[in-house]
Amino acid sequence: MESLEIAVKNYNATVNFVMRAVKRVTLRVRSSVIHVPRDFPTISAAVTAASAGDTILVQRGVYRESVTIPSSKSHIRIIANGTPVILDGGNNLGTGFTMMADHVEIQGFTIRDFKRAGIRGASVFGSRIIRNRFFRYLAKQNSRESQEWRVADKACAWQSDSPQQFEWQCAVWY
């Protein structure tokens, strides 16, 4: 009886391993490239249309929107293709990118004038924030404050109540 239980556990472990491998291969095979604004006029519309594993290439220009990446959109890449590619909050939108999915990459954007944060993630894992620049207009000083923020430089704020639950934000303004 004990050897039957061991055989079942080994079988389940093998099935789980194969299923994870199939999922990785499926993501690679099914991935496509979505172009903004050629295929969709906004980054948000491209994210809505994207599937896991897709790459969204955003052409140069100014995009006045907040972008939310829901948990169902894991493994997507959102890449600025050319310079400048600006995500502009116009001093009235809260957060530039809100990441709720794991394994998301955001690369090469100039993110400016959002009220709360340039990029925010909550309970997400494996995400990459690469070469983004953040600006915030300071009306009182009539100047533009500039700082390059990178996760590797610990320029993002990290909060954690437990190893399973954490939150981080880049370029946070209060």
Overall average residue pLDDT:
75
Helix-strand pattern:
HEHEEEEEEEEEEEE
Shape, principal axes of CA atoms: elongated
User: Which structural class fits the helix and strand makeup?
Assistant: alpha/beta
Q: Report the radius of gyration as a whole number of Å.
A: 19 Å
Q: How many structural domains does the protein architecture include?
A: 2
The major beta sheet can be summarized as: 8 strands, mixed
- The CA-CA distance between the termini, in Å, is 63 Å
Q: Write down how many β-strands occur, each being a DSSP E stretch of 2 or more residues.
A: 13
Number of helices: 2
Task: Estimate the strand proportion.
Answer: 35-45%
Uncertain segments: 138-155, 157-167
Q: What fraction, in percent, of the residue positions are helical? A: 10-25%
Protein name: Pectinesterase
InterPro entries: Pectin_lyas_fold, Pectin_lyase_fold/virulence
Organism: Alicyclobacillus fastidiosus
Characterization of the model:
There is one protein chain. With 174 residues, this protein is α/β, with parallel strands linked by helices. The protein folds into two domains: 1-30; 32-172, no CATH class. The chain has helices at 2-30, 43-49; strands spanning 33-36, 55-63, 67-69, 77-88, 95-99, 105-107, 110-112, 117-122, 128-130, 132-138, 143-149, 156-162, 165-172. The longest helix has 29 residues, at 2-30. It is elongated and about 70 Å long. The N and C termini lie far apart (63 Å). This is Pectinesterase.
